[in-house]
Specification:
141 residues, three-stranded antiparallel beta sheet, Arc Repressor Mutant, subunit A
């Protein structure tokens, strides 16, 4: 047997796979779930931009990991790079107007997917689970 804690984490891993599969329907907007999360964070950030390293930390990735996710988004014009006027070593990721439009459209799809995944009458349970996930480090917002 394995511990309850380990089984819990294994089940979170399975849940992540199930969610990723369900959110594959974001591809009608040209996005994957991680792309959507990046656009969400940038859309709600101050001035719609963020340092790459801060974005990576917010998502829970390395700087190179977030760069790999950003490159395709940059190629299709959803995000762009912006240099820091004071420090050439620092660059920002900026959500473009096109990126904002695609995010708004994809948000509707994502909300519909969410309604399929989460039971609508479990709001108290959802709040408890959300608090626990946040304690474990799942704190995008």
């Amino acid at each position: 047997m394995i511990s309850t804690e380990l089984l819990f984490l294994i089940n979170i891993n399975k849940l992540q796979s199930v969610m990723a599969r369900k959110f594959d329907s974001l591809n009608v907007h040209g996005l994957g779930l991680n792309d959507f999360v990046i656009l969400y964070i940038l859309y709600h950030s101050s001035e719609s931009k963020m340092r790459r390293i801060d974005l990576a930390e917010k998502i829970g990735l390395t700087a190179s990991g977030v760069t790999r996710l950003l490159n395709p988004l940059e190629k299709i014009g959803l995000v762009s790079r912006e240099a820091n006027e004071r420090d050439a070593r620092v660059s920002y990721v900026v959500i473009t107007e096109t990126g904002k439009k695609i995010f708004e459209e994809a948000k509707k799809t994502a909300e519909n997917i969410t309604q399929e995944i989460l039971p609508p009458k479990k709001s108290k349970t959802l709040r408890i689970a959300a608090d626990f996930i946040q304690e474990l480090g799942g704190n995008i917002q």
